[in-house]
Specification:
Length: 111
C-alpha cells in the first residue's frame, strides 16, 4: 500500500504510532505495515518504544504526563523520529501530531 503522507502520533494502547491519512481511513498501521514500508529494524524499534513510552508515562487513567520530564522526552523523541522517517522514506511526508504535549508550551521545551 503506497503512502504519500503518514501521521506520527501516539494514542492509547495502539500497536504503533504511525497512522494512514484520513482520506485512506485514518487507520493505525500495524507492525507488519512498518515492515512493508521497508524501515530498518532500529527505526521500527524506535517507533514502538516511543509508543510504549507514551502508554507508560501518559496512562489513560491519568490522562496526563507523570512528570514534565516525561513530556519533554516524549516531544523530543517525536521530533527525532519524524526527522529519521523523513530521511528513511523521502517520498513520504510525515506529519507529527503531538496532541499530548499541546497543554505544554512547545517554546519552553528544551528540544
Amino acid at each position: 500500500m503506497p503512502f504519500e503522507r503518514l501521521r506520527l502520533m501516539s494514542d492509547y494502547q495502539v500497536p504503533t504510532p504511525v497512522w494512514a491519512p484520513a482520506d485512506m481511513g485514518g487507520f493505525v498501521l500495524s507492525p507488519t505495515h512498518l515492515d512493508d514500508l521497508g524501515l530498518d529494524e532500529r527505526l521500527r524499534t524506535g517507533l514502538l518504544r516511543w509508543q510504549a513510552y507514551f502508554d507508560e508515562h501518559h496512562p489513560v487513567d491519568l490522562c496526563g504526563w507523570d512528570s514534565p520530564a516525561s513530556c519533554t522526552a516524549y516531544a523530543s523523541e517525536g521530533f527525532r523520529l519524524q526527522s529519521e522517517l523523513t530521511h528513511a522514506l523521502p517520498g513520504v511526508r510525515f506529519d507529527l501530531d503531538l496532541w499530548p504535549v499541546r497543554a505544554v508550551d512547545l517554546d519552553v521545551l528544551p528540544l
